[in-house]
């Protein structure tokens, strides 16, 4: 009996990634889950539709659309979102999916830049993300990302803000407990970009991270900051193997 | 009041919060009266479905269904949904036709706080029936500025 | 033009009740949100949704600021034959959008 108790105690002390991993989907109300499951009711699908239109729309002086190079997204983008953040050869730095889309837009289509969190960039990220739905999150086994992930983990464990809290303190140590009326999720990035009921709009993972940083009364990093890419890389490692849910719904 | 006294009084006046627009039981009753024309409303025959515990008041799924043959002789003309504590008492008012098949409406609503929701159906025989639900609304733990 | 998603079932039989689900992209600014400068953001909502079949109104909803953003509306129909469905959303600031769909009834 004592051995069982000791084992149970030991399991409680394990961080989230060693405990059974649980998507935020499991922590939300039945009605919200139903909204995510139903493509006819999931408001994020409105942005996916926009993304699909942008995909085929010529842009820039050469009149190139995403489809001009990439063909049908259903075929060529399958599994792509699941492999981000990745290493970008051109800039010799890690890059997330919205960063990659913006880079393609500017450097290959020579089209006007798509700003972070703009409707166009969110729509494309949602459309491309959908092509990986159901597939396991597969962070690339690229040694060059190792220091990025290490930085991400350090940032994840660092206390910040007036409330002096780290991500780990809530999302590893207290996942499953309650903060005000809400259940604290393990904070996996599998459903982004997602429709957040709080925003009544589609938003990126970085928007959510900024929200959390504001929540602990820390100065949030800028959109596109290297710190965010690093945290995303760490979160992807931590969630490796979990199913992509993009585009999700969260409360 | 001399101009100087008015200037001195101004900061105190600015401290008064503006009157918040707020529905109340009276406003809901008023809106209900406008829908029914003052006719009596009986609880029953209407099925209002809404979760009793809502995790975010911004988007709350709601559905109202009234069993009815929906024939020319016997049908539901309209369903109105009211709330008690949003800034104004109306939510939605739906009107049906001979092609409706069913008196049903489903949508997502906003709830400012925990409150009572009332669904009222206008029957073709001139009667009004209703269903109500008590909903507890929780907020997100960290509100974005 | 706001993005719209309309879900109409495939095999509709005459006389059988079926559901139509609609989603439209619209912020539904309630008119109660503070604008950060002491005032409120002006109301900008969809105020009405109507469905007409072959020109005859078959369903209508009046919306208020209490309807969530990106309005999701589900309603039912029972038809005897095929025809043209017109869905129309109207609202503040002259918002007026219609979508036409052919409904096939067997």
How many DSSP H or I helices of chain B?
2
First and last CA, distance of chain B: 40 Å
Oligomer state of the chains in this structure: heterotrimer
Largest β-sheet summary of chain C:
4 strands, antiparallel
> Averaged pLDDT of chain B, please?
87
Number of strands of chain C: 7
Provide the CATH top-level class of chain C: Mainly Beta
| Outline of chain C | elongated
User: Strand count, sense and closure of the main sheet of chain B?
Assistant: 6 strands, mixed
Could you say what the CATH architecture of the domain at 40-137 in chain B is? Sandwich
Strand content of chain C: over 45%
- Biggest chain-to-chain interface with counts: B-C, 30 and 30 residues
Radius of gyration of chain B, Cα only, in angstroms?
A: 20 Å
Find the CATH topology of the domain at 40-137 in chain B.
Immunoglobulin-like
Number of helices of chain C: 0
What is the strand and helix layout of this fold?
The complex is a heterotrimer of chains A (251), B (145) and C (106).
Chain A: H1 2-13, H2 24-27, H3 30-37, H4 44-55, H5 66-70, H6 73-76, E1 86-88, E2 93-95, H7 97-107, H8 119-130, H9 146-157, H10 167-171, E3 178-179, E4 182-183, E5 194-196, E6 201-203, H11 205-215, H12 226-238, E7 248-250
Parallel strand pairs in A: 5-7
Antiparallel strand pairs in A: 1-2, 3-4, 5-6
Helix pairs in contact in A: 4-8, 7-8, 9-12
Chain B: H1 3-15, H2 25-36, E1 41-43, E2 47-50, E3 53-54, E4 60-66, E5 76-83, E6 90-96, E7 103-109, E8 115-123, E9 128-137
Parallel strand pairs in B: 1-9, 3-9
Antiparallel strand pairs in B: 2-4, 4-7, 5-6, 5-8, 8-9
Chain C: E1 4-7, E2 17-24, E3 46-53, E4 56-63, E5 72-78, E6 83-91, E7 95-103
Antiparallel strand pairs in C: 1-2, 2-5, 3-4, 3-6, 6-7
Features:
heterotrimer, B: 145 residues, alpha+beta, Immunoglobulin-like, 6-stranded mixed β-sheet, 3-stranded antiparallel β-sheet, 2 helices, 9 strands, 17% helix, globular, C: 106 residues, mainly beta, 4-stranded antiparallel β-sheet, 7 strands
């Amino acid at each position: 009996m004592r051995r069982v108790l000791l084992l149970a105690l030991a399991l409680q002390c394990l961080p989230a990634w060693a405990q059974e991993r649980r998507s935020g989907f499991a922590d939300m109300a039945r009605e919200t889950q139903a909204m995510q499951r139903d493509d006819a009711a999931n408001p994020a699908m409105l942005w996916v539709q926009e993304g699909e239109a942008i995909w085929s729309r010529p842009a820039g002086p050469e009149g190139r659309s995403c489809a001009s190079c990439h063909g049908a997204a259903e075929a060529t983008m399958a599994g792509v979102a699941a492999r981000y953040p990745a290493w970008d050869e051109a800039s010799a730095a890690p890059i997330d999916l919205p960063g990659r889309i913006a880079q393609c837009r500017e450097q290959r289509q020579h089209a006007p830049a798509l700003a972070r969190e703009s409707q166009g960039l969110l729509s494309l990220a949602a459309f491309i993300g959908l092509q990986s739905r159901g597939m396991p999150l597969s962070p690339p086994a690229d040694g060059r990302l190792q220091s990025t992930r290490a930085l991400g983990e350090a940032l994840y464990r660092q206390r910040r803000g007036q409330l002096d809290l780290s991500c780990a303190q809530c999302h590893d140590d207290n996942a499953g407990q309650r903060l005000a009326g809400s259940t604290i999720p393990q904070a996996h990035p599998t459903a982004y970009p997602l429709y957040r009921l709080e925003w009544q709009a589609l938003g990126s993972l970085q928007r959510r991270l900024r929200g959390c940083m504001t929540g602990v009364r820390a100065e949030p990093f800028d959109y596109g900051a290297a710190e965010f890419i690093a945290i995303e890389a760490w979160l992807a490692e931590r969630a490796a193997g979990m199913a992509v849910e993009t585009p999700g719904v969260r409360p | 009041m001399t101009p100087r006294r008015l200037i001195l009084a101004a900061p105190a006046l600015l401290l008064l919060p503006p009157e918040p627009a707020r529905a109340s039981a009276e406003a809901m009753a008023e809106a209900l009266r406008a829908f029914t024309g003052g006719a009596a409303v009986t609880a029953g025959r209407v099925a209002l479905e809404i979760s009793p515990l809502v995790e975010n008041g911004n988007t709350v799924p709601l559905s109202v269904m009234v069993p009815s043959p929906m024939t020319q002789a016997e049908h539901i003309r309209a369903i109105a949904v009211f709330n008690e504590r949003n800034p104004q008492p109306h939510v939605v008012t739906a009107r049906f036709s001979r092609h409706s098949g069913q008196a049903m409406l489903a949508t997502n609503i906003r709830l400012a706080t925990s409150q009572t929701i009332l669904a009222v159906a206008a029957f073709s025989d001139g009667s009004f029936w209703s269903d109500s639900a008590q909903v507890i609304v929780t907020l997100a733990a960290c509100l974005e500025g | 033009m706001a993005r719209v998603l309309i879900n109409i079932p495939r095999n509709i039989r005459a006389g059988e009740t079926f559901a139509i689900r609609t989603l439209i992209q619209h912020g539904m600014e309630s008119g109660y949100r503070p604008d950060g400068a002491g005032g409120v953001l002006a109301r900008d909502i969809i105020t009405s949704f109507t469905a007409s079949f072959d020109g005859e109104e078959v369903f209508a909803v009046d919306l208020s600021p209490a309807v969530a953003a990106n309005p999701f509306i589900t309603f039912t129909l029972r038809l005897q034959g095929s025809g043209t469905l017109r869905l129309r959303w109207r609202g503040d600031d002259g918002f007026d959008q219609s979508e036409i769909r052919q409904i096939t009834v067997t």
